[in-house]
Amino acid sequence: MELVLFLIAAGIIFYLYKTFQGYLSNPIVPTDRDTLQPQRQQDYVEERPILSPKEKLKRTEYGIIVSILGRLSFADDKSCMLEERLVKGIIDDMAKDSDQPSELYLEIYKESRNDDIQELAELFASETIGQYKKRVKIVEFMFALAYADGNFSQEEEDSIINVAAILEIDNADFNHLYDSFKALNEEYVPLTKEEAMNLFGLNDGFTKEELDSKYNDFFKQKRQNVIDPKNLGKPYNESGGQDLRKISEAYAVLLKEVD
C-alpha cells in the first residue's frame, strides 16, 4: 500500500515538473488587447488668426471710438478744416495716452467709411459698461463733429441717434445735447473780415505764416481733450467748443485775403 502511494506521489511530482519546464520554455505573451497602453493625449492647438498691429488696435476702446467718428465723418461725404483738426486732436490724445502711433489711428479712421455704425456702437457699449459719462461725452463729441461745418445732415443725425440708443443715453441728456447744438448753430452769425482780423489781432498785410500761427495758438488753447477723465463732466461748448468754430471761420475768411 505504501508503495502504491509513493508511486502516485512520484507521478504527480513528475507531472508538475514537466509542466513547469514547459511554461519556462514557452512563456505566455499577452496580446495587445490584454495590455493596457497609456493613451497619449493629442495636443490641441486652437488656430487663431494672426492680427496685425492695426487690427489689434482697432479692437481696443480707442480704436472703436476712432471707427465711430470716421463712420460719422464720412456719413455725408463732407468735411471742413475744423472737423479735420478736431479728429487730429483726439487721435493725437489717444496716441499719447496709449503709446500707439497716431498714423495707425488715422488709417483706422479713414478705413471706417463702410463700417456698420450699430455694430461699432455695440462694441463700444461692451467696453464702457458702467461708464455712462464717457458714453455721453463721445455722443457730445459726435455732435461737435457733425456741426463743425455748420450743416447737420440727416445722415449724421441718424448715425448719432443710432449710437445714442445703443449706448442707452437717457432721453433728457440726449435732448439737451441735441437742442443746445441746434440752438448755437441757429444763433451763429458769420464773421466779417474786420471781426476776423480783430479776433486774431492781425493788421493789414499779414502773411499766411502769421495767420497759421495765430490759428494754431488759439486752437491749442480752446480745444478740449474729450478722453481726459477730468473733462467728462465739462460741457464741450462751454469749454471752448463754440470758440473753435468761430476762430475756424475767421481763419477761412482771412485765408482769402492772403496773396
From TrEMBL:
InterPro entries: DjlA_N, TerB-like. Pfam families: TerB (PF05099). Residues 75-176 form the Co-chaperone DjlA N-terminal domain. Coiled coil: none annotated. It comes from the Bacteria. This is Co-chaperone DjlA N-terminal domain-containing protein. The lineage of its organism: Bacteria, Pseudomonadati, Campylobacterota, Epsilonproteobacteria, Campylobacterales.
